[in-house]
Specification:
This protein is mainly beta. Helices cover 2% and strands 43% of the residues. It has a single domain, classed as Distorted Sandwich (Beta-galactosidase, Chain A, domain 5). The strands form 3 sheets. A 10-stranded antiparallel beta sheet has the order 6-7-8-9-10-21-18-17-14-15, with no helix packed on it. Strands 1, 2, 3, 4, 5, 13, 16, 19 and 20 form a 9-stranded antiparallel beta sheet that branches. The chain has a two-stranded antiparallel ribbon with strand order 11-12. A hairpin with a 5-residue loop joins strand 1 and strand 2.
Amino acid sequence: MDKSRFTRVPVPFPAARKAGPVLAAVVLAAGALTSAGPAARAAAPRGPVPPPGCSAPQRITERLAGGTTWNMCWHYDSSAGLVLDRVGYRPKGEPRPLQVLTSAKLAQVHVPYDDGKAEFDDLTGFGFGYGLQELKPAECPGGTIRSVKVPDSGYVKGLCTTTRSRGHAYRMASDDGTKVWQEEGRDLLVYTVNKVSWYEYITEWRFSSDGTISANIGATGSLSPVDYDAGDGRGWPIGKGAEDYATSHSHNVFWRLNFGLDGGARDRVEQYDSVVTPPNGNGSPTTKTTRTPVTKELAGDAKSMRWWRVVSATGRNADGHPRSYEIVPGPSAKHPGRPFTQHDVYFTQNRACEQFASNNTLDCGPNAPTSVDKWVNGEDLRNPVVWVNIGFHHIARDEDQQPMPVHWQGFRLAPRDVTAMNPLTPADLATENGAPSSGS
């Protein structure tokens, strides 16, 4: 098989890294990704998360319209790129900031081609972090572009922090129509751009005034200029006539989330499933929702009326309800070709060496497995890490030239009982919490 047509143009690695194991997986033929059997894991850090604190250049703080303040630290990794640490927010009326995430980052961009002749792990196999792009002022309107120290390299002005509108945060009219309560939602936007061969990946995090966190990756740049002979149903004609067929491929993107709600390390995971019963007689359908505690490591699959949340071990809102965040996956084309891509979400016990969903390059011990599916082995979840897998099947089109429009994939973390009421509640509605009082 001639593999030259699948050779990517790599971002230059520092000389010290070129001979290392990271590049060993640049070109992977079908069957090349293998994992060993069970092995010992490095112990995870124990105890509470240290209080927020980082130097000013590594700190992001933004007070949004509506009174919500987001704060976090950040650092940069040669494989994962942008990593966010100790992410928390303070809604108006709360006496202190509420920690949400201990850390959050990309955990892999796995790209298998439909013809089975090439497969890439763009983070750990292709030097994702070294491809950080310099951003122009026009790419960060109204914001700040920060300098990022790329490991083993120099500084790049490559981190944008800015704010953007997200449309209505809420709208409610009074019963008599004489008053309308409405407010525009605002997001803190934090993003970088990393170039891997002809692709450019926009790693985007949005932190909303209502407490929602959105994680997205956008792929843009160019189609591979050498993959144009897949005219057997594994490609799409690009250009004049039906001569050049761009090879279709998938982008299986993983994120790694270590929550640490309220600064703790013993969050719990719950799964919710709802079952609809057809109506009997003249009644209406009924729906019953059940909660299943996830106490062991789990590889989970999304389905209709199923969702998961991560619950604080210690924190409760002013109504006495445990604080939690719900995982809301975006549209996904799940890829069944590898064991680690066959599930939508994984919950594993936190291990310092388990950082990347496939081709994990950290040392977890002799013969240790190197993909997230193998880390799910029935261990108790005492300090859970959440891995979210969102897939996109890229069948090229004429509009992908040139340059290629951004295609997005991602998910949201929605606050559930973090605050006793909507954190943007206007003052004249602040007493409307729970069932209306009699006579109102």
